Amino acid sequence: AVCERGTPVRCGQAIRLTHLGTGRNLHSHRFASPLSGNQEVSAFGEAGEGDYLDDWTVVCSGTYWSRDGEVRFQHASTDVFLSVTGEQYGRPIHGQKEVHGMAASSQNNYWKVMEGIFMQPSEVFKAEQYHAEL
């Protein structure tokens, strides 16, 4: 289902990450990546539609993925972590680092939001977050 803008993302939730410019999803499968030999990560699908190999699990601490917190993305079908290391392409995208899947968790597969639009949490989320038993 499409996530409504401003809806909190739960730790442990399966998501799809769609590139807004191309409409393709972050995708992985059991093929070797060209530079590192780890698992290939690519773009797949049309207009956000794809297949089960586009599903990633949000791995974070707490209940929700927080704006300032680090997060990992684990591929739902192959269990690799979305990672980036030092391998860089020469052509046609000189200097761009290879993004791939790694079997083990490490410092190379922590991600943090750096850009974007921050949406204030909905009233329902605020009530759930601060609810205390009497």
UniProtKB/TrEMBL annotation:
The MIR domain, residue ranges: 6-61, 62-116
Do you know which PROSITE patterns this protein is assigned to? Answer: MIR
What keywords are assigned to this protein? Repeat, Signal
Source organism superkingdom: Eukaryota
Name the InterPro entries on file.
Answer: MIR_dom_sf (IPR036300), MIR_motif (IPR016093)
Q: Record's PANTHER family? A: STROMAL CELL-DERIVED FACTOR 2, STROMAL CELL-DERIVED FACTOR 2-LIKE PROTEIN
**Name by which UniProt lists this protein:** SDF2 factor
What is the organism of origin for this protein? Grus americana
